[in-house]
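re: ur question from yesterday

yeah so i grabbed the chain u mentioned. its 727 aa long if i counted rite. heres the sequnce exactly as i have it in my notes:
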Amino acid sequence: MIVLDKEKHVFTLHTQNTTYQMKADENRVLLHTYYGPRVEGGDLSYLIQYADRGFCPNPSQVGQRRDYSLDTLPQEYSTCGVGDFRLSSAQVEQPDGSRLLDLRYESHEIRPGKYVLEGLPAFHGQGGETLSVLLRDPFSGVEADLLYGVFEEYDLITRTVQIRNRGDRPVRLTQAASLCLDLPPAGMDFITFDGGHVRERWMNRTPLRPGVQSAGSTRGTSSHQHNPFVMLCERDAGEDHGLCYGAALLYSGGFQVEAELSQFGDIRLVMGLQSQGFSWQLNPGETFTAPEAAMICSPRGFTPMTHRFHRAVRERLLRDPYAGKRPPVLVNNWEATYFDFDEEKLLNIAKVAAPLGIKLLVMDDGWFGERNDDFGGLGDWTVNRRKLPGGLEELVPQVQKLGMQFGLWVEPEMVSENSALYRAHPEWTLGAPGRPAARGRSQLALDLSREDVRDYLFGALKNVLDSTEIAYVKWDMNRSFTDIWSAALPPERQGETPHRYILGLYELLERLRRTYPGLLIEGCSGGGGRFDLGMLYYTPQIWCSDNSDAIDRLRIQYGTSFCYPSACVGSHVSASPNEQNGRVTPLETRGVVAMSGTFGYEMDLCRCSEEEKAVIRRQTEDFKRYAPLIREGDYYRLTVPFQAPGYTAWAHVAPDRQEALVSLVTGSTWAAQPFVTLRLKGLDPAARYRINGGEALWNGDALMYAGYPVPLMQGDYQALQLHLEAV
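ran it thru and got these structure tokens back, copy pasting raw so excuse formatting
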């Protein structure tokens, strides 16, 4: 709900549990007055204090008044070069060469329905409202239209900005943040989710210190190293208590998020496009639209914030062809065969998989062109007839006869130098003339900012998808971007290439989605190198990490869970010893961990013993039974991985609290282990539950407040799964 006090120019955004407020003051500066638990107190600008602060300059509009400075006031969208020395939200190179930007309130509009961003991902659906607040620099004609979307039931507020040039000469935009949030002085922690390839989204929590702390990516993707989701929280905040803020950027390219603790203790969070190397020329009358950012405030800890993000993502972001349905359990042939496969090997895997309850066979890298290793074939999206003599037209019907669907792997954004495509169009790759280009996985990046490149890729993929029935595509991308230069842009516009690339990627994916609405596309970038809300708008599930080790995945999936729901987390059972780290883990444990995601197998089923096949058959049956609960239930983190009491536990609880699935994995074992109990969460305290179909009945309040006694388990990395049903 958006409430306007016309007389005082106060804009209040109410959600179910929170309030967000801003005010245009007498100098037309748009001040941020409040964001926190819901209040009905009207104009909250009384919270803002004024004082004469040394070396904090005063705008000319206030005359001799020395207690009014942009450097001390909480602002809704911070300016640049005119008196605020904290983080700026936007930077513009003006026609005279100056970098000054002084944005003042001009007008506003409130309209029903949530705004739509052309060519960019955004939360969508019925019931939202939009607030548009127009700011203008009176000296240059540059405007910033701040857009806010309000989804009350999720406590979700979305934000973006559209920057226009209303002047008569071109300007150059060099920064365009989507979100600026100023908070009053408080002892707060900054939480980021960091790591690297095969160790993505490890949670890092540090106290805010004077100055700027940041996370971001200059790799052209949202990256394995940092994720475009962060949190600010009170020092003592935890899962069930304390004030916290979550902010996510719906973008898959380079980003930056910075948190600043100022000299006076106030806090500023700025999130948006990576400004390093970015520029965008705005000719007179042109507009630049920044990606959407999403905010949720939780007055009661991390768990409510997680639940609201999960529900909003599932119901207002994902466009999943399996929405409301159970997705098929899949088997991928990569770790079974790598590049060395043919039709017979694939069919043998399918013949073993089908009786085990697996319903989708995915053919991974190596099925196209001259693709027998990492050094060739990318870009030539035609079937390798030496491996598949009859092509997909013969292979797919044979898989379908076994009662399975068929999917395949593609990496359209990349090209091998040893390919027909590269030999025909070397100018289609990113790379400056006269400079040798760096390679990643022995490949170069195609320039998706170019329409002719996107047209070629769409046509090549369409030929494949039209040749037979393809139910699933795994869309991979396996390198960071270097040598960013486009042959299609003039020198003065080369700073636009990274963002134009992402817009081109989104356009290509949207074109495929509209042409094949029933096709499930799973995103991947070396696993979790592009795991963000922007990609989820187009690919409703993403391969969480190339690290499929169940124990490493505990920490990866833990960090992922703070923003991203289990329904979109690609997670499979792989072989033991594990390919990435050599760890030996029980098959039962690997299944329990993978079941908190989309679930599938990444191993050679033909080598499994009859005992292992029986376990796999039981796992697929369990997942089919629990899939609605895992995909739509509320997620609870019951412990922190690898901390006391020595095990990792989590739960999925049905919204009506009549059913729950609790999962637990132990660490390394030792003699004379202590007895421990696990306190559950989210149950109905008045209900009585049956566990795993047993005769005993357990009170919900007792399970939550007294706990469940964890049985002693011998051996490393054991797993326990409890299915609770209310009676």
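noticed a couple things. Residues 610-632 form the longest helix (23 residues). also The mean pLDDT is 96.
anyway ttyl
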